[in-house]
Design a protein that fits this description.
Elements lengths: L1 E3 L2 H9 L5 E6 L5 H13 L2 E6 L19 H10 L4 E3 L3 H4 L13 H4 L2 H4 L3 H16 L3 E5 L3 H13 L5 E5 L19 H6 L1 H16 L5 H13 L4 E9 L14 E9 L2 E9 L2
Parallel strand pairs: 1-4, 2-3, 2-5, 3-4, 5-6
Antiparallel strand pairs: 7-8, 8-9
Helix pairs in contact: 7-8, 10-11
Length: 280
């Protein structure tokens, strides 16, 4: 496994790869969710490239950029064990040199609501860094987790609009045995907060039960029931509940087909998101 840190090293290393390339962009502090993406890429592509870069431009003022968990040595050991060919670990100065002034922005409903409203500028940072990484890595396929459902849709929109020659491969959310969605930010949680955070996955289970078993079709009522459940959950500070179209993220009035239920809440020092596709 080769580790490179500069743009020029990355270009040279990519030029030496022949055959299909799968790419997994990460911010490091890897968990089983990230490794599931790596394994999927390994099974489908001749070469696997992983990036580790905590991207400062997708963090807003007062967010956790400085304290975001980092452990490069551990990450590299995990990736070597998974048979990764190439790891790109650039610095912020390498990715955003002095004078950097070009941004990629997906506009419209996909980025204006939910995470876009709660974290202004977040998706501009995501789209910009992902396009830069795609240009450097030139992957045939890129693998993204469905836990970040809105991010996945934004990246797909950017790829389609800019005619990028890469296939975006969505991969299922990986959960702890008790249902908590795996996240690097789970490390912020105390044992008590870790238990409180289960309210998010339990709210998604409640949504499934209400729609599938009880036949609830009124999306506004489903939102109300989930908001009430989360507001009554100890230690949970609700940000939003959305019952949306899975491709456009437009809020639904009626649940007549697949509905994407998206949640965001703060538990202790961690802001957590989760989602599930619910089919009636």
């Amino acid at each position: 496994m080769r580790v490179v840190r500069t743009l020029e090293e990355m270009r040279q290393a990519r030029a030496a790869l022949t055959g299909s390339v799968g790419f997994v962009p990460t911010m490091g502090y890897l968990h089983e969710g990230h490794l599931s993406l790596v394994r999927r890429a390994r099974s489908e592509c001749q070469h696997v490239v992983v990036s580790i870069f905590v991207n400062p431009t997708q963090f807003g003022p007062g967010e956790d950029y400085q304290r975001y968990p980092r452990d490069e040595a551990r990450d590299l050991a995990l990736l070597e064990r998974e048979g990764v060919d190439l790891v790109f670990v650039p610095s912020a100065a390498e990715m955003y040199p002095e004078g950097f002034a070009t941004w990629v922005e997906v506009s419209g409903p996909l980025t204006e609501r939910l995470e876009g409203a709660s974290r202004p500028g977040h998706f501009r940072g995501v789209a910009t860094v992902v396009l830069k990484l795609f240009n450097l890595v030139q992957p045939h396929r890129a693998y993204f987790g469905e836990k970040d459902a809105q991010q996945l849709l934004v990246v797909r929109r950017m790829v389609a609009d800019l005619n990028l020659p890469v296939e975006i491969v969505p991969c299922p959310t990986v959960r702890e045995p008790d249902g908590l969605a795996m996240s690097s930010r789970n490390v912020y949680l105390s044992p008590e907060e870790r238990t409180q955070a289960l309210a998010l996955s339990r709210a998604l289970e409640l949504a499934r039960r209400l729609v599938r078993e009880e036949g609830l079709r009124d999306a506004a009522e489903l939102r109300r029931r989930l908001e009430d459940f989360l507001r009554r959950s100890p230690g949970v500070g609700l940000d939003y509940v959305s019952v949306a179209h899975p491709e456009t993220l437009a809020e639904l009035e009626r649940i007549e087909g697949p509905a994407l239920v998206l949640l965001a809440a703060r538990v202790g020092p961690a802001r957590l998101i989760d989602n599930a596709l619910i089919e009636p």
